[in-house]
């Protein structure tokens, strides 16, 4: 079979675990997913990520090496499950765990930090690693995000014009058009991040609202929802990107402080509605006035929240809401697959960032290469 095997690793802002996607990539051809594996993080590792996110150089330092080990194990597990020898894999594309993301603002230059030591992955697996995908774009003044639009275009441009909406910790949309130059994308705001944090705080450390069951039995607080939808990020024009620095634990603590009387399930319902409504509002403001969209294809763990999925279907009708699963890509695998596609461009020395999306001065070859 033609093409080469690249294994993508995605550990997103939900820090729920790492998704590994073994992909057969063909230059300028349609990539094919061979195998998807998810490795959950044990609670202690999740806590370590939260601590690293909240500061502490030593925590960040230790975590980078620890995650390198976890990523290497996920790589070997995925290869084994696929029945593929690591020596047949051309490269590992490791996004890394974001511990800080500061988009450029006015005169302030942007910066970003993804960790998960590529040398550890390369030494344990014997495979070349492409990592640190966001820095080149940021060095050129870009947001360093979203980077998946290049891959979304390759995967879905036959269905143009559609939107690919990923719901991870943060949510991002790609408007997939026929021509790559016309593709637009930005972060719409929170995905699961606030829901997950609320579950952890208010429901005895539960990591997330499985199936949206808690949100379903709650009632959204209309006044609070309206206030949250007034957050300045939502009306800000793209290019834009965001992270847990804006929609994370600190934001949630502020909400809880000011709304002590609200019942826990009502708060989770309000935050779930916030995710759905902020996505709809983003389309109303920045997508639908310019593009005729027939279909929205969802990916990310948020697509497994059936209550949230129901809200989105209701809000977007008559626009069809589908899942990447309907096109042979399990929704949790899509981002990992996308980074495998980007790494293939990197290995070929081709740029894959879209300056119109990130705001950078030009397109860049993304990532750094670590040899085993
Ligand atoms: N069965 C489910 N029901 C509800 N939410 C889910 C389910 N499975 C996953 N999720 C949500 O998806 C998140 C993980 O999504 P993911 O796409 O991996 O995000 P990230 O890229 O930020 O890590 C979990 O933290 C959780 O909020
Ligand atoms: Mg994840």
Radius of gyration: 19 Å
* Tally of domains: 2
SSE topology string? EEEHHEEHEHHEEEHHHHHHEHEHHE
Provide the CATH architecture of the largest domain.
Answer: 2-Layer Sandwich
User: pLDDT below 50 for ≥5 consecutive residues: which ranges?
Assistant: none
- Ligands present: adenosine-5'-diphosphate, magnesium ion
Write down how many β-strands occur, each being a DSSP E stretch of 2 or more residues: 12
Q: What is the top-level CATH class of the largest domain?
A: Alpha Beta
CATH topology of the largest domain: the name is Nucleotidyltransferase, domain 5
Name of the CATH homologous superfamily of the largest domain: ATPase, nucleotide binding domain
Using the alpha-carbon principal axes, give the shape.
globular
Strand content: 15-25%
Query: What's the average pLDDT?
Result: 96
The level of helicity is: 25-40%
Largest sheet report: 7 strands, mixed
Instruction: Tell me the distance between the termini.
Output: 25 Å
DSSP helical segment count:
14
* Class computed from helices, strands and strand pairing: alpha/beta
Fold and architecture overview:
There is one protein chain. The protein has helices at 43-53, 57-82, 118-125, 135-139, 149-156, 193-202, 213-217, 222-229, 232-235, 249-258, 264-287, 306-316, 334-347, 355-358; strands at 4-11, 17-25, 32-40, 89-102, 111-115, 128-131, 162-167, 170-176, 184-190, 295-299, 320-323, 368-370. The chain is built from 14 helices and twelve strands. It has two domains: 4-145 and 336-370, Nucleotidyltransferase, domain 5 (2-Layer Sandwich); 149-327, Nucleotidyltransferase, domain 5, CATH 3.30.420. The chain starts with a strand and ends with a strand. 40% of the residues lie in helices and 22% in strands. The radius of gyration is 19 Å and the shape is globular. A hairpin with a 5-residue loop joins strand 1 and strand 2 (17-25). With 372 residues, the chain is α/β, with parallel strands linked by helices. Strands 1, 2, 3, 4, 5, 6 and 12 form a seven-stranded mixed sheet that branches. The longest helix has 26 residues, at 57-82. The structure holds adenosine-5'-diphosphate and magnesium ion.
